[in-house]
Amino acid sequence: MRERSYRAAIREALLEAMSADERVFLLGEDIEYAGVYGVTKGLVDKFGCDRVIDTPIAETAIVGGAMGAALMGLLPVVEIQFADFIAAAMDQLVNMVAKYHYRTRTPLPLVIRAPAGAILSTHGSTGPFHSQNPEAWFAHTPGLKVALPATPYDAKGLLLAAIADMNPVLFLEQKALYNEKGDVPEGIYTVPLGQARLAREGNDLSIITYGAMLSPALRAADLLDGEVDVEVLDLRTIVPLDKEAVLTTARKTGKILIVHEATRTAGFGAELAALIAESAFEFLDGPIMRLSSPDAPVPAAPELAGYYLPDVNEIVTAVRRLSAY
Amino acid sequence: MRERSYRAAIREALLEAMSADERVFLLGEDIEYAGVYGVTKGLVDKFGCDRVIDTPIAETAIVGGAMGAALMGLLPVVEIQFADFIAAAMDQLVNMVAKYHYRTRTPLPLVIRAPAGAILSTHGSTGPFHSQNPEAWFAHTPGLKVALPATPYDAKGLLLAAIADMNPVLFLEQKALYNEKGDVPEGIYTVPLGQARLAREGNDLSIITYGAMLSPALRAADLLDGEVDVEVLDLRTIVPLDKEAVLTTARKTGKILIVHEATRTAGFGAELAALIAESAFEFLDGPIMRLSSPDAPVPAAPELAGYYLPDVNEIVTAVRRLSAY
Amino acid sequence: MDRLTPQKYLSLYIDMRRMRAIEEKATALYYEGRTIGRIYSGRGQEAISVGSTYALAADDAVAPMNRDLGTHLVRGITVREIFCQYLGRANSSNRGKDAGLHISSPERGVMVNMISNLPASLPVAVGIALAFKIRRELRVALTYFGDGASSTGASHEGINFAAVRRLPIVFICENNQWALSTATSKQFALEHLVERAAGYGIPGIQVDGNDVLAVYETTAEAVARARGGEGPTFIEAVTMRMKGHSVTDPAQYVPQSMLDAWEQKDPIRRFGNHLRQENLLDDSLDENITGKISAEIDDAVAYAEASPFLPAEEAVTDVYAEGIATTYA
Amino acid sequence: MDRLTPQKYLSLYIDMRRMRAIEEKATALYYEGRTIGRIYSGRGQEAISVGSTYALAADDAVAPMNRDLGTHLVRGITVREIFCQYLGRANSSNRGKDAGLHISSPERGVMVNMISNLPASLPVAVGIALAFKIRRELRVALTYFGDGASSTGASHEGINFAAVRRLPIVFICENNQWALSTATSKQFALEHLVERAAGYGIPGIQVDGNDVLAVYETTAEAVARARGGEGPTFIEAVTMRMKGHSVTDPAQYVPQSMLDAWEQKDPIRRFGNHLRQENLLDDSLDENITGKISAEIDDAVAYAEASPFLPAEEAVTDVYAEGIATTYA
Ligand SMILES: Cc1ncc(C[n+]2csc(CCOP(=O)(O)OP(=O)(O)O)c2C)c(N)n1
Ligand SMILES: Cc1ncc(C[n+]2csc(CCOP(=O)(O)OP(=O)(O)O)c2C)c(N)n1
Ligand SMILES: [Mg+2]
Ligand SMILES: [Mg+2]
User: Cβ A290–B278 below 8 Å, yes or no?
Assistant: First the structure.
């Protein structure tokens, strides 16, 4: 067992990919220096500024530029400094990049990394503009894939799979997890996009989740041990979605709690609920429940943010409510 | 009964609002001339170029500029030439505009009009970049309201309500409906944002829809007359959502078919299904079904577009399938 | 930079003639309800795409816009391919999934398949130039955008990024006086849009966009500069949009006097006269050219009309690519 | 334009001193874990926000950025309000829902409550100027953006739109040499960013951003021009970010020699010396000022710490406004 942090796992994926294939290069703001979360630290020393390229503050040029390089056969890995700033590249991403293969059958292997989600510290949360979880916008944009790794192992394996994928992949790093440690094998391995992971087996009720909410979901399941036998499914990617795994757990337990950090209305949880309500209806033993952030921006002050963000206690309460149904 | 087209109803709302309140003004590309769909035709002659303002091609400046004017007490009505181009103003819209009241309690009365959806003609559809239905992105953006009028009457009344609203409202005109005619009273009236309309009463099955899909839904219901007694709910606005109306029809018929033109995955239909699966579960007599465009960009050629877009026949088939459940 | 030999003059002329004739035919087909999507005409602007694209080497890359049919012709896109695209057939660049002049052909260096959103190709072309620079290839990218598109954030971000990294790219702004109904006076507060170049720290050159030789030479100089490692150039090609924005736009907002004045500067007639003066063209050759072009177009239209549409079910295919980009081996 | 009377010099000096002292205190509180969010310091840049905001009339509008604490002080935002904001209290501008210097106060003309996304306030400030122009009010808008933010599409679209409509607005680009870790050489290919102004057809003026009188005078001229209907001005205020990007950034990428050189040009010491030469300041007055400021800060911190946080449940309130904007009556 080789322990690494989520951050280190991502850096290792970049480093190994760049070492193995010279077409891989990095593009983004302040990535020579290290990036705001230190993920790209040191890579410029190893690969030089032709492969670790600092850009002006210009998200549209970054995404468009990466696409152009991909068209010429390079394998760009973009860093958008915060997922909140992807909005500044929206047009390039959803109109130019996402629709390109459909229109032309020209593959666009291209990864966009961005730290998503809130961190809570003594200084409050990361606030309304450095905490957002925009994955549902992109799940609703045909042509993009969307990965949200929940563990260091998956962070490395999914990133290597994303770089090797022939499509644009939005890789939403969960910034709350950067310091989390876990088993990370050395060398290249991939975790296929579109394969959920049964993080915990159980018979009474299923929690379907992804990203930063996996760990509180597992803790909640542990706390409920003996009371409710909770199964926990970690989607790992929401596009492609492992529908089989979602429906299998739904059919097995008949009680579904969907948990994500993004806001509720029209969040990706809605898609999961809709899928189950359409394709596993006969197996349901209770309402499909969603637990998420409420429909508001992410507040900064600690108590507001604590109230706002879903946590272990709320998951436990929701499981109890649903299992009592 | 005073018949007007959907287009004329919208123009009338603008004209009457501008006449009644001199703070109302228009901002957008080519709106002096008429706008691509002719909605603002003639308004510059009546109100002058200080109130019908042509802009450079700069969606971010348009949305940001409208916000600044709203802060100074004006009531801007923006036209984005096609809903597809809202992506170019995404950052201003979702980060600056949508979150402003939450952060400051300063109201931002501001309307963004944009033609959405596809038109099919002998020349095929309006294609991948002039046909999109992005409402789900904005339903997932707390702070925005989203209206999608399905009739000339609602087009005028909802627009007048949107202009009078204290919040940013995205007003997605259904371009397939511009030439549709219907009853439109003279003078100012408002259709409240957040009130669905029961477009057809029925007992066997509910179609929940909005925008351009209302009319095929009603036609399908008529075709099925005597076979399945279909209720049709027109949401009119998806934010605020008339949850009561959605749950009432769900509880009444127990069989739900959700229809929208936007693509399926993580579309607003998912939210409706999730809401019902959570809050009307006990009343369901069958799976919640969704009918929508498939997860692909909007193709241009006629046969491709015909296959792609949901239509009356597909609605009929879906109703039959669900009612047989 | 290579100067064009007079022998090549004729091919410039022919490509401009082809461009105009193809667009006229496409417009006619539109009115017959036979095209997919609208036609956006580059009438009056033929010298720009034709002249500039001639300045590229075989392995350079170009990202044309919808009034740049000449670019496609110069790069060897066939008239058959063009009508298959206008008619939305299965064998066209977009296979009917998209319409208009959204054509690309990587093997012939038409690298970016444009989209409607303005000017989305521009940052992509910058990325192509970035790839050339990263790989130290002596190749150049060329892209076009309109006077209207110059107001967008995307154009700013792309040009500035290219300037900062001294990328081998040429930006041609086709200032055709109009962006849909919007006159340039409502688009920028400059006498000449080329003044913007200095704001990026790159050379800016204004060229008469109706003079094909001038466009060629200006572009060739910029291409040479890019290839020589001296970075981007911003060219303003001044011209006039002689038709409506699209085939459905009667463009009543354009003063007739303006059209009349520009009609005098028609790039094709003008270059034709020049060729006649140089004894490279006479009536019989011109008629011969007309005949060849019209035969080529007739053939292409017939070919396109005989070509099938994509089966309806393919509306939902190809959203994602298959295969892997690297085995990390 | 009004020239500043020497009597007013002292208040410029005091506001710069207050800005620096407040930021130092806020930084200390950050390290004690008592602030919400990070602190972004404008150390070394005090002359810009203080000097420029002095050039505004009472009913002008300003949209400051996060290193423009001086703007808030000049417009009368109290030190108590500022610490309530830094400490995220219920009685602050964002009531704890947002952090940092995201302060607005419409009644005192701080019209835009900035967000982190760069430079989102700029197009909004342009809209404010548009409202002034529509209503024919002789009011002016002023906004700031960074050397880094100049690369964004949003800055381009906003400045160009203002230029086209000759709106009464002043854009001050605070060129502090860095955008996070990115030096200006990676941000633009210009010797001086002010050269960009010509690309918009508006006057561009470079000013020594560490000279508060020069900043004041340059801004006052631009404000007068705007009020006189002559449209926007682009001012590049050259300065240096003397701290890390935020309190968590050790900024090891900044050469020490650069910091040393700029330390010599410290705007406060420099203006203090000037005041001493003019006999407007001496040691005892200076100490007196120091004492007053530190008392003001102590009071403000105590006040802020005694102020409650918003109740947790309010995390979800105020997403939408109530009421109606017009009855069409
Ligand atoms: C981002 C964006 N906004 C608006 C439009 C709608 N639109 C299409 S073409 C056009 C005018 C373009 O003018 P210009 O760039 O000068 O090109 P021209 O048509 O003159 O060749 C507009 C506004 C668009 N395509 N993309
Ligand atoms: C659209 C956007 N992209 C990236 C960022 C991240 N970011 C925050 S501040 C900053 C540097 C800003 O530099 P500059 O504009 O020069 O302002 P300064 O910090 O020097 O005052 C960056 C890249 C952001 N806030 N917004
Ligand atoms: Mg034009
Ligand atoms: Mg800076």
Answer: yes
CA pseudo-torsion sign A70, A74, A77, A81: negative
Say what percent of chain B tops pLDDT 70. Answer: 100
Answer whether 0.95 is exceeded by the pTM. yes
Closest CA of chain B from D89, distance in Å: 13
Q: Could you say which of 3.40.50.970, 3.40.50.2000, 2.60.200.30, 1.20.1050.40 is the CATH number of the domain covering B2-184? A: 3.40.50.970
Do B197-323 and B2-184 fall under one CATH topology? yes
Tell me the CA distances in angstroms from C122 to A68, C48, C177, C227, D127, one per residue in order.
9, 17, 20, 19, 27
Q: Are D240 and D262 in contact (CB under 8 A)?
A: yes
CA-nearest of A229, A161, A221 to A195 is A161
Q: What does the domain layout of chain B look like in residue ranges?
A: 2-184, 197-323
pLDDT tens profile D252-297: 999 999 999 999 999 999 999 999 999 999 999 999 999 999 999 9
Residues in chain A: 325
3-class SS shares of chain B: helix, strand, coil, % to 5: 40, 20, 40
Residue B224 has a pLDDT of 98
Q: Ligand 1 in contact with C116 (CB < 6 A)? A: yes
User: Which of chain D's residues have a Cβ under 8 Å away from the Cβ of B143?
Assistant: 319-320
Does A295 reach chain D within 8 Å, measured CB to CB? Answer: yes
Chain C touched by B84 (CB under 8 Å): yes
- State the distance from the centre of ligand 4 to the C-alpha of D248, rounded, in angstroms: 16
Candidates C169, C170, C282; CA nearest to C236 is: C170
pLDDT tens column, A265-281: 999 999 999 999 999 99
Going from the N-terminus, what domains does chain C have, and what CATH number goes with each?
A: 6-314 (3.40.50.970)
Rg (CA), chain C: 20
DSSP strands (E only) in A235-288: 237-239, 256-263
Task: Give the DSSP H or E segment for C139.
Answer: none
DSSP state of C317: S
Chain D nearest-CA residue for B25: D134
- Cβ atoms within 10 A of the Cβ of B77, count? 28
- With a 6 A CB cut-off, is C302 part of the ligand 1 pocket? no
Q: How far is C72 from chain D (nearest CA, A)?
A: 30
User: Using alpha carbons only, what angle is made at residue B171 by residues B168 and B174, rounded to the nearest 5 degrees?
Assistant: 170
Residue C1 has pLDDT above 60, yes or no: no
At A278 the three-state DSSP class reads helix
For residue D210, the CA-to-ligand 4 centroid distance in Å is 14
Name the CATH architecture for the domain at B197-323.
3-Layer(aba) Sandwich (3.40)
| pLDDT for residue D2 | 60
Distances (CA, A) of D219 to C17, D108, D194, D285: 55, 19, 14, 28
DSSP letters, A47-115, are: H-TTTEEE--S-HHHHHHHHHHHHHTT-EEEEE-SSGGGGGGGHIIIIIIITTHHHHH-----EEEEEE
What percent of chain B lies above the pLDDT cut of 90?
Answer: 100
The structure tokens listed for A236 are 């790992």
Residues of chain B with pLDDT under 70: none
pLDDT, one tens digit per residue, over B103-123 is: 999 999 999 999 999 999 999
Ligand nearest to the CA of C119: 1
Residues with CB under 5 Å of ion ligand 4 are D 146-148, 176, 179
Distance, CA of D236 to CA of C110 (rounded, Å): 40
Provide CB contacts within 8 A for A48, sequence distance 6+. Answer: none
For D107, residues 6+ apart whose C-beta sits below 8 A from its C-beta are: none
Q: Is the CB of A263 under 6 A from ligand 2?
A: no
How much distance in Å is there from the Cα of C242 to the middle of ligand 3? 11
